[in-house]
Each structure stands twice: as structure tokens, then as C-alpha cells.
């Protein structure tokens, strides 16, 4: 899965102020990523507010993204949830034309045991038409995929090709890297830890900050991949404040405010999320005015 090395971005879903999907904004965002050197795009990961989209909206966004990308960049589709049967149904109905892989978040709210998580992904692995990337984000789901379960899945199902790890646990990262099959990819799911994770052996990042700054994020991953850590640290340090502001009031409110300030798409989100506060918006505007990050 060479296409999944380097920097991917979890695309936001642009909305108009009335809550409808802003397809012109989405097209501008896709072009911003491709022109900025991003290695691949993730359409409708959790950053894309997928939980608030209807099935018809999801299908339309996936189709639109594939048409606008037009084979110029690999695409990953986010299809996950806490109802295994429903996730399998969505996978069976998915039009995979133009897509390279599926990213599937670990079941949220239900708090399954590790055996439940294993059986969930076993069913998905049997149904997916494309290679599968696990997504471990316990801070949002309420439960985590252990390193042991990750490695078990990686060894038993050849079409499970990687994991997006947003657990924040370097003990977990180290165990996965120690025990995984050689070809299985560990991918950072947190912008702030991309550099140290890649120093350990991670394949790259699926970024949020990259929505606004694809050149910096993709260059950071490239430098790490080439073991040029002195140069990578310079970019890492310059992104610290931007990343802090991006997540100050939750995701994707912060990154959408940055995209609005950059003139790419609006800041609107769907309830139960709300837009960034006026104070944060002002702070972001001031930070963007003085930064030369691109």
C-alpha cells in the first residue's frame, strides 16, 4: 500500500450557512490539497462530520470527491460505526470507483470488549471491497483497540493493511511496531505526534491541520520519511501554535475557521457542533496574519 505512506488529510465537509453541502467549497478544498502536495485524501472520516450526514449525502460526497480528484491522488473513504450489520451493509453498497482503501473507526459508545472489536472488524474485513485501515480514537469512541487486538487483526486478515492510531499512547505505538507484520502500516492520527511517531517507524499521518496547511504537513511527513529530522523539527515547531488553535474548541470548528479565513470554504458546522467562538476566531485570524506557513 505505497499510496498510504506520507501525509493524508481527513477532509472537512464544507457547509453553507443554511446547513446544505457547499460543493464549490469542497472542490476548492480538494484542489488546495492536491496543489499543496498532499499524498492522499480521506473523504468522510470523522472530521467530515459524517455522523450528521444522510446516506444520500454521503454517497454524493464520495462521488463528487472521486470526480474532482480524477485519479490525480489516492482516495480513502471513511465507513464505520457502532452497528456492525449497518457498516457491512454500507460497504456492500459502496461504489469504490476511484478509491484505494476504507478507513473504519472503532465502534463508539457501545464499549465492546476486545473480542467484540475483533469480531466487528472480522465482519468488516469479509465485506469490504477495498483494503481496510483500522481507526483507534478512544478519546472519542469511549473504548480502544488494544495493541494485541490490532496485531491479531493485522496477522489474520491480509486486507487489513494499517491502523490510524489516535490513542496518544507511545507504549501502544511501540508494541504495534514491534509485533505487526512488516507490511502493516501504523499511521499517526494526531497532528502533534507525527514527528515522534514517524521516528519510531510510523508510515505517516492522516492530518486535520493539513486541511489548511497541506504543504507544511506533507513536507513534514516527507522529511521524516527521509530521516531528515532536523528539518522536520523546524516545521513541527512552527505548527505547534496552529495545531493548538485548531483543536482549542473541538474538531472541526477550529480548522473550518482557518479555512474560512484562508478563503477556501465557510466555517459552518452542523449541530450539535457550533462554530468557533468570536474570541477564538479573532485569535486564529491574528495568528494566520503573522504566519508564513503554507
TrEMBL record:
Active site positions: 135, 164
SUPFAM superfamilies recorded for this chain? Aldolase (SSF51569)
The EC number(s) given in the record are 4.3.3.7
Q: Which InterPro entries match?
A: Aldolase_TIM, DapA, DapA-like
EC top class, as a word: lyase
Q: Which Pfam families match?
A: DHDPS (PF00701)
Question: Where is the site labelled Part of a proton relay during catalysis?
Answer: 46, 109
**Single GO cellular component term:** cytosol
Q: Where is this site: L-lysine inhibitor binding?
A: 51, 82, 86, 108
Set out the biological process GO terms recorded for this chain's protein.
Answer: diaminopimelate biosynthetic process; lysine biosynthetic process via diaminopimelate
A single GO molecular function term of this UniProt record: 4-hydroxy-tetrahydrodipicolinate synthase activity
Q: In which pathway does it act?
A: Amino-acid biosynthesis; L-lysine biosynthesis via DAP pathway; (S)-tetrahydrodipicolinate from L-aspartate: step 3/4
Q: Name its cellular compartments.
A: Cytoplasm
Q: Which residues bind pyruvate?
A: 47, 206
Question: How does it associate, per the subunit comment?
Answer: Homotetramer; dimer of dimers.
Protein function: Catalyzes the condensation of (S)-aspartate-beta-semialdehyde [(S)-ASA] and pyruvate to 4-hydroxy-tetrahydrodipicolinate (HTPA).
- Give the family from UniProt: Belongs to the DapA family.
Its recorded name reads 4-hydroxy-tetrahydrodipicolinate synthase
